[in-house]
Amino acid sequence: MGPALQALILRAEQALDHRLPPADQSPADLHRAMRYAVLGGGKRLRPLLVYATAQALGEDGPQLDAAACAVELIHAYSLVHDDLPAMDDDALRRGRPTCHVVFGEAMAILAGDALQALAFEILAEDTTRQTDPATGMAMLRTLGRACGAEGMAGGQALDLAAVGQPLTLAQLEHMHACKTGALIRASVRLGALAAGGDADVLQALDDYANAVGLAFQVRDDILDVEGESIVIGKTAGKDAAAGKPTFPSIIGLDASRARLAELTNAALAAISPLGERGALLRELAHYAAQRAS
Length: 293
Description:
InterPro entries: Isoprenoid_synthase_dom_sf (IPR008949), Polyprenyl_synt (IPR000092), Polyprenyl_synt_CS (IPR033749), Prenyl_diphosphate_synthase (IPR053378). The protein is mainly α. It is 73% helix and 1% strand. Helix 1 (3-19) crosses helix 4 (63-82). It is globular. 45% of the residues are buried.
C-alpha cells in the first residue's frame, strides 16, 4: 500500500485504540480480550474503504472515524466467533494464537458480543452528534443489515451448512456475498452516506464494493491453496482439509485466477466516473486482488 493508505491505517489504529476500553479497567479480562482481538494486526481494509470512499466524494471529517471503527469492530467480532471450535475451529489468526486459545472460549464469546455492541454504540453516538438524523439512521441500518441474517451471520450459516456439500458457482458466490461481501459493501456505503453521495453515486459504489468483496474472497481461497501459514497469518490448506467449498475446489485454480481478474476489472469500471478522485479506491481494488496475506 502507498503512503496515503498507510496514513489512513494509522488514523484507524489510533481511533480504535482510543475507543476501546482500557485493558486495566474492570472487567479487565474482557477488555484485554477485546483489545487483543482488534489491535493485533490486520489489513484494516474495511476502515480504509470508509475513508477512501468518503474522500473520493470530498469528505474527510472526524465523523468518518466512528464509521471506520464500527466496521472494524464488527469484523473483529466476526473473526473471534468464526475461530471458535463450534465454528471454524482455528488456532491461528493474524500470525498469532486466536482469541479463544489465549483467553478461553467463554471470554472469547463475550469479547465478540461486546465488540459488536461497541460498534453500534460508537456509530450511534457519533452520527447523532455529527450528521442529520436521516443519514444517521441510514448508517445504523446499513451496518445492522450487513452483520445480521441478511449479511455476515447468514453467510456464516450457509458456510457451515455447505461443508462436504457440492455447491454451484452461483451458490458459492451468494454465500460469500453475504459472509464476506456484506461488510465490505457496508464499509463503502457508510463512507458514501457520510459524504452525502447521491443515488447514482451510491449505485456505482455498490457495484464496486460487490466486486471487491467477491474478489477478496477469491484471493483468500487461492491463498489457502498456494500460501504458507507463516505468510498468510492463518492455517493454510485448512478449508480443503475441512471439506469446505472454495473457488479452486469448484472451478479450479486457473479459472479462479480468471474470475479474480474479471472482478477486479468490474470494480475498476464501476468507479471510472470518479476519475482521479477514485485513486485510493482503485488502489484498494488492486490490493484485494494481489495481496499475499
